[in-house]
Amino acid sequence: MVGTSALRRPAVLAAETAAVAAGYYAAGKLGLLRQLVVEGAIFTPIWPPSGVAVACLLILGLRCWAGIALGALLVILSLTSLSPSVVFNLAGNTAAPVCAYLMLRKVGFRSDLARLRDGLALVFLGALAAMLLSSTVGVGVLLVTDELPAHAFWPVWLAWWVGDAMGVLIVTPVLLVVHAARRPPPLTRWKEAAGLAIIALALIPLATNSHVSLLFLVYPLLIWSALRFQLAGSMLCALVTSVLATIAATDGVGPFAGLTRVEVMGKLQAFNGTMALTALLLSAVITEQRSTRRSVERACQELVEVLEHLTAGDAPYGRPPKGTEDGPPGRS
């Protein structure tokens, strides 16, 4: 039995590493389908692999870092040949999600995102702070190797940083929700979910492709989905919206028509960022309030039961009847 367990651990670790690498690579290829050009540098408005990497670390732990590194290497090699700069990009793309994981663990992050503090930690530590590492290393390598002029550093750095951060804000919560799913909701919730999905599939393409600025129409859907379905509903709605908005931005249609590349980047990233923040933090607040209400209801129910027993002359739970605390009475 000892020998079997010892052999099983490396096999499980190898399987996990391969699965994480495959997921990272697939997410990278999806992200590369839509690109924008800023100061001659090509970047993706949303970089899904960063969200996949942080989610894998939160689910599997630090042992999956090798799978992240392997997946990042495969994505980089699909774009360019092996060179010394690849090593630095690989280190930055691996270290950023690892730093996000370590910082989130440090503050007691819970992957169910049932508290407002968890949502804030994912936003400010997992996305905005940790992704500074990958963007700084990546753009720094371009600058040192003379592939990027010095005056273009900050626009390209900002685009890289925001793209990585958007991947964490949008993709990581969805993967955590999928991992935590245990059983389907009741039939009555499915009817409401179907109605929400039909309205979303009709309204979101209209908002992201209309020449009239109608992007604000998405926010009532986010509020509805957060109120009724918490994180699962709001983040799925945000994911669909961000994908369609990115497609419209890269095609230069709808509210992004007639804008320069820099203006397209600014408008798209501002919209995706505010939408993801709204969906994530609103659902966290609602989930936390519902959890608090359930705790108060349970406490009230227990208090009512104790009062009923006291009124009936019975002892409260956990206390022996009066006169029996010191054992059976002795004879005089």
TrEMBL record:
Membrane-spanning ranges: 119-144, 156-181, 193-219, 231-250, 270-287
Record domain MASE1: where: 19-290
Membrane-protein topology: Multi-pass membrane protein
Region span, Disordered: 313-332
Keywords: Cell membrane, Membrane, Transmembrane, Transmembrane helix
Pfam families (alphabetical): MASE1
Presence of the UniProt keyword Cell membrane in the record: yes
Name of the protein described by the UniProt record: MASE1 domain-containing protein
Chain coiled-coil ranges: none
Compartments, record wording: Cell membrane
